């Protein structure tokens, strides 16, 4: 299996390489791809060094799978060129997610819908992935009517520039700003760019992608996305209104039996998910499960995941694993 990682030197690309290695993905040849300034640089993978190449060279090398994490404009231009060459693209940008002709995949939920004809597969937004991992099994059982989400998102979702801003603020150094305000000792209710409807692009991703992945446009979704000075992962406060009533312990049982979900929910021992413990792990963690007594058939949950792992790299690699297992590449 010849695998290209487009954006291999970036934050998510670096984690993709780690996850491929950790999960023993059957890579016979790695093709690291990056911008011109990185071409020729050597990247180590499983004890071997591989030279970074450009996009044109990568297409000519005909990998079986290309994992893209190089931004939307690169994906829009280059994913079709890879696909035309017979290469299956798994794209981590927002470029193809809401394209009606492309599948938006969380393997545990809808990988079964993939076919050999799917040459560009969209990897959902990080905050959406962890949300739907918890929502999907509950939607099957109780049917979700409405979801209200507040996210508390790691600066790693912005990238290296944000990490540098936080480090500079810690040390009192001047430097380039990833955000319009300081992030140290702050919470910024502004993730991505504002849209005409007053919501940010990140908030609308949660709305639109959730409906697409769960294949149900009747679910009402509203979100507020907040950036906080945390590195380990994204956290979400989620309020769900169901069509049918539930028992709290049944919710815990369903989630604890869901592959890829770990329930951490014991208030007697102060056990609940936190990004400091989610960092570096591939699961989605759910806790603070409790009935919302202000609404009929409503529930509150707290969901945490490493946004660079299950929120990006791990989900993409799992899509690749499914394609191989089902002989779709």
CATH fold assignment of the largest domain? Dihydrodipicolinate Reductase, domain 2
Question: Which structural class do you get from the secondary structure elements?
Answer: alpha/beta
CATH homology superfamily of the largest domain? Dihydrodipicolinate Reductase, domain 2
Radius of gyration: 20 Å
Count of individual beta strands: 14
Mean pLDDT: 97
Note down, in words, how this protein is organized.
The chain contains 10 helices and 14 strands. With 329 residues, it is of the alpha/beta class. It has 2 domains: 2-123 and 312-325, NAD(P)-binding Rossmann-like Domain (Rossmann fold), CATH 3.40.50.720; 127-307, Dihydrodipicolinate Reductase, domain 2 (2-Layer Sandwich). The strands form 3 sheets. It has a 6-stranded parallel beta sheet, sandwiched between helices. Strands 10-9-11-14-13-12 form a 6-stranded mixed beta sheet. The protein is globular and about 60 Å long. The N and C termini lie close together (9 Å). The longest helix is centred in the middle third of the chain and has 17 residues, at 126-142.
Keywords:
2 domains; 33% helix; 6-stranded parallel sheet; single chain; 6-stranded mixed sheet; 329 residues; Dihydrodipicolinate Reductase, domain 2; alpha/beta; Rossmann fold
How do the strands and helices of this protein lay out in sequence?
Elements: E1 2-6, H1 11-22, E2 29-33, E3 42-45, E4 48-51, H2 55-60, E5 65-68, H3 72-84, E6 88-91, E7 103-104, H4 107-110, E8 120-122, H5 126-142, E9 144-153, H6 160-171, H7 201-213, E10 220-227, E11 234-242, H8 248-256, E12 261-263, H9 275-278, E13 284-291, E14 298-305, H10 309-325
Parallel strand pairs: 1-2, 1-5, 5-6, 6-8, 7-8, 9-10, 12-13
Antiparallel strand pairs: 3-4, 9-11, 11-14, 13-14
Helix pairs in contact: 1-10, 5-7, 5-10
